[in-house]
Amino acid sequence: MEQMVDTYMLHLKVERGLAQNTLDSYRRDLNKFTRYLRRHDVDNLADVDRRTIMSFIEDLHTQRRAPATISRNLAAIRSFYSFLVVENLVKTNPASELDAPKIPKRLPNVMTVSQVATLLEQPNTRTPAGLRDKAMLELLYATGIRVSELVELNIVDVNLEMGFLRCLGKGSKERIVPMGKSAIEAVANYMQNGRGKLLRNSEEQAVFLNFHGGRLTRQGFWKILKKYVRQAGFQGDITPHTLRHSFATHLLENGADLRSVQEMLGHSDISTTQIYTQVTAIHLRDVYQQSHPRAKK
Q1: Could you give the percent of the chain with pLDDT greater than 90?
Q2: Which of 40, 114, 162, 184 has the fewest CB atoms within 10 Å, measured from its CB?
Q3: Per-residue confidence band for 160, with pLDDT thresholds at 50, 70 and 90
Q4: How far apart are CA 73 and CA 8, in angstroms?
Q5: Are residues 141 and 201 in the same domain?
Q6: Do residues 73 and 127 share a domain?
Q7: Does 101 reside within a domain?
Q8: Same domain membership, residue 270 and residue 146
Q9: Cβ-proximal residues to 260 (8 Å cutoff; 6+ apart), any chain
Q10: What's the structural domain count of the chain?
């Protein structure tokens, strides 16, 4: 079973070009499933039927796993068996007709424009690290790119003169995203006055460097963001994705069309982007309640 999982993971990496984070998630979920099978004396993936998978799902429920986690596990199993069917390693997909649990849609956590401004003011731009941090925060809010896309940026991906960057999203899909004036200035300042002082190897192509002169990691950025969130005195959970959510919401609040926002975010399905219209609708309702002279009568 483990060998088949390894073969499938290679397929996802080479043939489908999935990001490493996605690959890690698939492997964790499938390893969890195969361990469950071993515990229940199932040694052959071809012996798994619909009832077996339902028992596994029930076990996840018993462990009080979140609906989103259960849904993701089921999706991984279904995709895995689809691959096995294509490769003629099993005859049928036992997960094909199983329904995933309904996941309640949670509205994304969004910062106000003034909160974003406060956060962006936190880095000390008199230091190379501060210039880097300022550039990263400005860029995340200006473009809505994911933190994984941010740290993977290379110098050739950023065109300051034209005001856009190129990034590879999920499934290695390339997209071009415009940058605003503030982000362009912050990145230019970092490239001119900060990056060279962090650089250790002249052949390093990463835009954003750590103190060892190598590419900054996702975990490294998380630590940086947490520091500035505390420094700004914010309460609640502010993550790199919060800036992405804020980017999309603020665009829509100011008249951007949904298709353009979808394109900039790199969403393959516009229904994913539509969650932000709910946020803007709530915002409009609150503005109305606060501003209209007869709203509270």
Answers
A1: 42
A2: 114
A3: very high
A4: 15
A5: yes
A6: no
A7: no
A8: yes
A9: 251
A10: 2
Nearest to 248 by CA among 229, 262, 268: 262
Q: Which residues contact 138 (CB under 8 A, 6 or more apart)?
A: 120, 182, 183, 186, 187
**1 contact partners, CB below 8 Å, separation of at least 6:** 34, 37, 38, 43, 44, 45
Domain that holds residue 14: 2-86
| CB distance 143 to 182 below 8 Å | no
Residue 66 maps to which CATH number? 1.10.150.130
Answer whether residue 143 is part of any domain. yes
Per-residue confidence band for 292, with pLDDT thresholds at 50, 70 and 90? very low
Whether 107 maps to a domain, the answer reads no
Residue with tokens 């698939």: 26
Residue-wise pLDDT for 87-140, tens only, equals 998 898 988 877 766 655 555 677 888 999 999 999 999 999 999 999 999 998
**∠ at Cα 17 (15, 23), nearest 5°?**
105
Co-location of 222 and 134 in the same domain: yes
Tokens 């979808």, located at residue: 262
Q: Are residues 81 and 128 in the same domain?
A: no
pTM listed for this prediction: 0.60
Active site residues per annotation: 146, 170, 241, 244, 267, 276
Residue 242 identity (one-letter amino acid): T
Reading the block at residue 169, the tokens are 């999203």
Q: Is the pLDDT of residue 175 over 90?
A: no
For 27, residues 6+ apart whose C-beta sits below 8 A from its C-beta are 5, 9
